[in-house]
């Protein structure tokens, strides 16, 4: 009996080309208090890196509001600015991401091509319900079955174009206004971000092999 010969060299080449293709259309969005982000040169070579800050003396094009708006302010500002030109995947992190996950870039490189909403954090925190004001602003009128799902720590997420665009532009604008006038807090959004995309996640969304090439 003969068996087909598996070409490992061809398979490595295929996976390498696939990873490069994914990297080209991935944008890393960073929330930084002062615009500083200690990252590797390779990250900048492989991905578009956009750094937002909370310092009025720095580049006004990347100003994401006062410091109290935190990662939530960056998420909403970026969604509004890029709404009609989202890349295939947007990765939201903050300047000290390595403290939460030292190998987060490897996780990002291992995302499946069809991943939609993925946590890049290895930590879990207490369950958190979305505030009523945020539910209304982001049109999140869906069954809150996700309350049974623990959320991932911190706003370290990879979100696909389809998932980002599933929320109307006007909803992002309204949510940012609520955040700016303190009707909601940054933590309201950061701690319930996984509720925003009910059509793209389920109770198994934290299982690695559903989002990563295991």
Tell me what the structure shows:
α3 (70-81) packs antiparallel against α8. The chain is of the alpha/beta class and 214 residues long. The chain has a 5-stranded mixed sheet. Helices cover 34% and strands 11% of the residues. The model is unreliable at 141-149 (pLDDT under 50).
Which SSEs are present, and which pair or pack?
Elements: H1 8-24, E1 26-31, H2 41-46, E2 48-52, H3 70-81, E3 89-94, H4 97-100, H5 104-109, E4 117-119, H6 132-137, E5 157-160, H7 161-165, H8 169-180, H9 186-190
Parallel strand pairs: 1-2, 1-3
Antiparallel strand pairs: 3-5, 4-5
Features:
214 residues; alpha/beta; 5-stranded mixed β-sheet; 11% strand; globular
Shape descriptor reads: globular
Number of helices: 9
Low-confidence stretches are 141-149
Q: Biggest sheet: strands, sense, closure? A: 5 strands, mixed
Portion of residues within helices: 25-40%
Average pLDDT score = 78
Strands of the largest sheet, in order across it?
Answer: 2-1-3-5-4
Judged by helices, strands and strand pairing, the structural class is alpha/beta
Radius of gyration: 18 Å
SSE succession: HEHEHEHHEHEHHH
Ends distance: 31 Å
- Proportion of residues in extended strands: 5-15%
Brief summary of the model shown:
By secondary structure, the chain is an alpha/beta fold. The protein is built from nine helices and five strands, in the order H-E-H-E-H-E-H-H-E-H-E-H-H-H. The model is unreliable at 141-149 (pLDDT under 50).
């Amino acid at each position: 009996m003969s068996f087909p010969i598996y070409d490992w060299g061809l398979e490595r080449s295929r996976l390498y080309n696939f990873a490069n293709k994914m990297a080209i259309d991935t944008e890393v969005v960073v929330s930084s208090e002062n615009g500083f982000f200690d990252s590797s040169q390779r990250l900048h070579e492989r991905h578009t890196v956009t750094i937002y800050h909370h310092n009025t003396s720095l580049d006004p094009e990347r100003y994401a509001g006062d410091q109290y708006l935190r990662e939530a302010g960056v998420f909403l500002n970026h969604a509004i600015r890029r709404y009609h030109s989202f890349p295939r995947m947007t990765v939201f992190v903050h300047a000290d991401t390595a403290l939460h996950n030292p190998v987060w870039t490897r996780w990002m490189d291992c995302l499946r091509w069809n991943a939609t909403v993925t946590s890049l954090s290895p930590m879990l925190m207490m369950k958190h319900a979305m505030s009523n004001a945020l539910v209304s602003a982001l049109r999140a009128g869906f069954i809150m079955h996700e309350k049974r799902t623990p959320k991932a720590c911190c706003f370290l997420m990879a979100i696909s174009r389809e998932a980002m665009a599933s929320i109307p532009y006007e909803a992002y604008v309204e949510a940012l206004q609520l955040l700016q006038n303190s009707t909601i807090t940054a933590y309201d959004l950061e701690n319930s971000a996984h509720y925003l995309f009910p059509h793209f996640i389920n109770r198994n969304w934290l299982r690695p092999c559903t989002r990563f090439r295991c």
